[in-house]
Write a structure and sequence with these properties.
Elements: E1 6-7, E2 18-22, E3 48-53, E4 57-58, E5 68-70, H1 72-85, E6 90-104, E7 109-114, E8 123-134, E9 137-147, E10 155-160, E11 163-170, E12 173-174, E13 178-179, E14 199-201, E15 205-206, E16 210-219, E17 223-232, E18 238-247, E19 252-261
Parallel strand pairs: 1-4, 3-7, 5-14
Antiparallel strand pairs: 2-3, 6-7, 6-8, 6-19, 8-9, 9-10, 10-11, 11-12, 11-13, 14-16, 15-16, 16-17, 17-18, 18-19
């Protein structure tokens, strides 16, 4: 799935452990915050409490991808996909049920989780991300997390060569940015893989213009991810994917999906205006 090993990527042997990080950023006045709800103004005093777990295939290059084994045709196709991502400058990604977010207005903090089962008090989000890559290595990543319920402000995350940042709002209208702590975990990092496929490949299922590639990989220590990528045959780029995370008993722990699109023009990097700067 998402960049690196989810194309986001794997921990623990091929993939997964969780890490918790807490940070409180100093308050600051932000003249750029206009017409924002009281919760959106928290962007100027944003605090990230992160309990994160990095998954597998679509994760953005934070960890080394799993070995590619299994069906020979599936292995060949996986390598072709990786070469295709090495030739493009960027991709956009939309995703559901991967990130969760929780607002803590009294303490001016928010918390986020990804690649985990739902936790009480957290809300699922939809993601709209742009990943700028060079030879499939991340130059910058911008993600907007929008809660699927309620009227809470979206949260933006930006990763670039200078650091990792967060703000309340959207790319068109947002608060100033605050830095995330170094110990917090994110699915992408500067210089990491933008997209990768790894695990045990199944037999590709060919259609007129696309091919479906099923494969499985470990997700944390006691879970298994079963992913099916839909790949455009002409370009070998991934169009969409469905991921089901299961226990060893076979019961489902988590399911999410994502879609990729490919901009015709190289996107401009996001401007990061720090609070108090």
């Amino acid at each position: 799935m998402i960049g690196g090993a989810h194309p986001r990527q794997r921990l623990l042997g091929p993939h997964g452990y969780c890490r918790v990080a807490v940070c409180q950023c100093r308050p600051a006045v932000n003249a750029r915050v206009r017409r924002l709800t009281p919760m959106r103004r928290l962007g100027s005093v944003a605090v990230a409490l992160a309990a994160l777990c990095a998954p597998a295939t679509a994760l953005g290059g934070t960890f080394a991808p799993s070995p590619t084994t299994g069906n020979p045709k599936g292995v060949k196709l996986a390598h072709e996909v990786m070469r295709a991502f090495g030739r493009i400058p960027a991709f956009d990604q939309s995703e559901q049920h991967f990130f969760q977010i929780k607002y803590e207005s009294k303490t001016h903090r928010f918390a986020y989780r990804f690649g985990k089962t739902h936790r009480a008090g957290f809300m699922w989000t939809t993601e709209k991300a742009t990943i700028r890559i060079h030879r499939d290595h991340v130059l910058w990543w911008q993600d907007t997390l929008t809660p699927v319920s309620g009227h809470r402000s979206p949260v933006m995350i930006v990763v670039n060569k200078d650091g990792r940042y967060t703000a309340f709002g959207t790319p068109a209208h947002h608060s100033c940015f605050t830095k995330l702590p170094r110990m917090s975990t994110l699915p992408y990092r500067y210089g990491g893989l933008g997209y990768s496929i790894g695990g045990r490949m199944g037999k590709p299922q060919r259609h007129s213009k696309t091919v479906a590639l099923p494969y499985a990989y470990r997700w944390e220590q006691h879970l298994t991810a079963n992913e099916t990528d839909t790949i455009w045959r002409a370009t070998k780029l991934v169009l969409s994917a469905r991921v089901a995370i299961t226990h060893h008993s076979g019961s489902q722990a988590l399911a999410f999906s994502f879609g990729n699109s490919y901009p015709r023009r190289t996107p401009r990097p996001p401007a990061v205006n720090l609070c108090g700067g």
